Amino acid sequence: MTGTLLFQSISAPLSTVASGILAIAISQTAVLHFNARLLLTGFAIASVITNTGMTVYSIQVLVYIFGSNDIDRCYILTFSSSQCRDMRRLYSLGRCWLILSLFVIAIERTIATIWCRIYEKRNYHYIGLSLAVIQYALPFVLVYGVHSSDPQSRYLYCDNELTIAKKDYAGIVVCVIVLQMIAIVTFIALWSYNIARKRLSDNLQMQSLQTQYQLNENVTTTKTMIPLVALNAFMLSARIALLIFAYPSHYDPTTPKTKSFEEVVVYAHFSELQRSLTPISTFIAVVCFTKQNVHVRNSLRKLLMLGSPKNKVRPQNGVSNVQAVTNAYFSQLAKQWL
């Protein structure tokens, strides 16, 4: 398992930087609607937290492994439930935040689809702010509100499935599965619906410029989110498969048994392999964002000083930068469509 932890300690910081840059790029993409920009930035921040948590845990365990002698290592690498909870808390917070982000983005995109004729004209900031409160606050309640199964027990391996009370963890798993399934179905349905509606409006040529713009943004955003939801679904499926086939069912931290300890060793190995997919999925998410969304790609190029889009706009007196960019974008679309 040491090799897996070494991989995490190297890849997780890199993916933290990548997702942090993506978060900044999304927040600076003024062409995106305020609500979408706010929630997508939160999604990227969740990736930062997840990979930071993985970095902290992997480095901490590696320090315990290489910084202790053979005699003390066995004792040092057994943790109390409070230690395990603290070591895993940041990672758990990020994972919960990611899954919840997909759910609230699905809600926001559904509203944008229903109100596509007026969604761009009327900002509806209260919708984005309300969803952001759920997105940013609820993960803290879920992660900090669970309790350990036995505060006095010591564990050979820190994992939520072993340390959290089974009743609490079962409820969390059910909620995660439900939210994930809702997000998957919603994004696929929205993408299909917006594609059909955009084709119809193109054929009829009856939609206003802003409606065309909103439909195009709906298609782009939902198309971008589908692979991200699929990645999270794959991670969740791998975790569930791990619990079904490798969970140490005979393990009891209060009664040491050789057989149960062997089960924990096998489970720990596969559990860390599954978690090592997190940095990989983060890099894939960054690639999906930059490849599918031209606005985010332009912001990223500008942020990394790789060149900026042509026709850079300077805001006039009394006009905000966001409004100036939006007006310029609509002007370019008008020249293209009219």
Automatic annotation (TrEMBL):
Please report the name of this protein according to its UniProt entry: G-protein coupled receptors family 1 profile domain-containing protein
What's any one GO cellular component for it?
membrane
Transmembrane parts of this sequence: 6-26, 38-59, 97-119, 126-146, 169-191, 225-247
Asked if the record carries the keyword Chloroplast, the reply is no
Query: So which domain of life are we looking at?
Result: Eukaryota
Q: Reply yes or no: does the keyword Magnesium apply.
A: no
Which organism encodes this protein?
Gnathostoma spinigerum
How this chain sits in the membrane, per its record, is:
Multi-pass membrane protein
